[in-house]
């Protein structure tokens, strides 16, 4: 009989682990280690998701590969959930009847350009080689961020539309945009597909999946939605040019002096790790003191 209190097994190999608390802690460590070891978790160089960051101070820190202490060894729950969503969607798309002729390419590694002579690479969630061609980026989203993004799209001229299939339809938007950051990221993926695969996309799309739907069928309830616009490589090129200019500034005067030059700029990034909360306002209320790098005016960025 095993001598560990509570264990009723007569014999077993290895140490006795019979406590739920022990197993729960070990499972948590498995999840944390896997998430913190992912390529995107350990990446320090700026990628496509960061090049359109509207807060110049945050962008300067990213270009200097200066990670905030508060984010070290921290598992971002939203990012973890989004990764799980991406993994499931990749499997579902590959197994779909729509993909019988290998219409879709998934998790495609692309180079979107260079910053300071170093390639900026990213992973495109889906390339539709038949319809368009087109580029799709999956996005997990919460209720508040969805409201803000839809408001920004409407404010910038987006037109509501419906994608109909059988007995239900997915709502979405054509044109406008949900914010400079998402727009630059998505257009940079399109540019990466062009530069890496030699395929020129006709359109790019964000496909939004709710992280916390309370409905039985998020597709029929309209909580799943999309935003699309024509491929415009200049948006990505402008974002990369801005990054290269700021990197040159850091190299010339140093990070601290570069940050001082933008000390009066209003931060419109709700989750900026570098700007105090009192300096962050909704984009609709903020008045930037710097020129709009994308030429699209003040917009309401995603939360």
Structure description:
- This protein is α/β, with parallel strands linked by helices and 303 residues long.
- The protein has one domain (44-303): Alpha-Beta Complex (Lambda Exonuclease, Chain A), CATH 3.90.320.
- The chain is built from eight helices and seven strands.
- The protein has helices at 20-36, 39-42, 56-63, 77-95, 143-155, 180-197, 233-253, 255-261, and strands at 104-115, 118-128, 134-141, 159-165, 168-174, 203-210, 225-230.
- It has a seven-stranded mixed sheet, with helices on both faces.
- Helix 6 crosses helix 7 (233-253) and helix 7 (233-253) packs across helix 8 (255-261).
- It starts with 19 loop residues before the first helix and ends in a 42-residue tail after the last helix.
Head-to-tail CA distance between termini:
57 Å
Determine the oligomeric state from the structure: single chain
**Beta strand %:** 15-25%
- Rg is 22 Å
CATH fold annotation:
Lambda Exonuclease, Chain A
Q: Ranges with pLDDT <50 over ≥5 residues?
A: 282-303
Number of helices: 8
Mean pLDDT: 83
Shape: globular
Q: What class would the helix/strand composition place it in?
A: alpha/beta
CATH architecture: Alpha-Beta Complex
Give the CATH level 1 class.
Alpha Beta
Secondary-structure element sequence? HHHHEEEHEEHEEHH
């Amino acid at each position: 009989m095993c001598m560990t209190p509570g264990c009723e097994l007569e014999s077993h190999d290895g140490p006795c682990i019979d406590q739920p608390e022990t197993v729960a802690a070990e499972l948590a460590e498995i999840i944390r280690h896997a998430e913190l070891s992912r390529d995107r978790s350990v990446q320090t160089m700026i990628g496509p998701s960061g090049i359109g960051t509207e807060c110049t101070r945050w962008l300067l820190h990213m270009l200097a590969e200066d990670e905030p202490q508060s984010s070290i060894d921290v598992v971002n729950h939203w990012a973890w959930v989004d990764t799980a969503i991406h993994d499931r969607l990749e499997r579902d798309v590959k197994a779909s009847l729509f993909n019988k002729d290998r219409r879709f390419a998934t998790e495609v590694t692309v180079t979107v350009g260079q910053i300071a002579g170093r390639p900026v690479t990213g992973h495109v969630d889906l390339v539709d080689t038949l319809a368009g061609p087109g580029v799709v980026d999956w996005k997990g989203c919460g209720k508040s961020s969805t409201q803000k993004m839809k408001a920004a799209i409407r404010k910038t001229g987006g037109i509501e539309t419906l994608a109909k299939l059988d007995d239900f339809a997915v709502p979405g938007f054509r044109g406008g945009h949900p914010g400079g950051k998402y727009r630059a990221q998505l257009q940079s993926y399109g540019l990466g597909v062009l530069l890496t695969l030699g395929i020129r996309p006709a359109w790019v799309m964000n496909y939004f999946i709710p992280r916390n739907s309370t409905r039985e069928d998020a597709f029929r309830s309209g909580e799943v939605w999309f935003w699309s616009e024509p491929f415009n490589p200049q948006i990505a090129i402008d974002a990369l040019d801005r990054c290269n200019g700021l990197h040159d500034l850091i190299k010339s005067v140093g990070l601290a002096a570069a940050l001082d030059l933008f000390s009066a700029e209003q931060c419109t990034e709700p989750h900026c790790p570098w700007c105090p909360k009192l300096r962050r306002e909704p984009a609709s209320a903020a008045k930037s003191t710097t020129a709009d790098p994308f030429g699209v005016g003040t917009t309401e960025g995603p939360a």
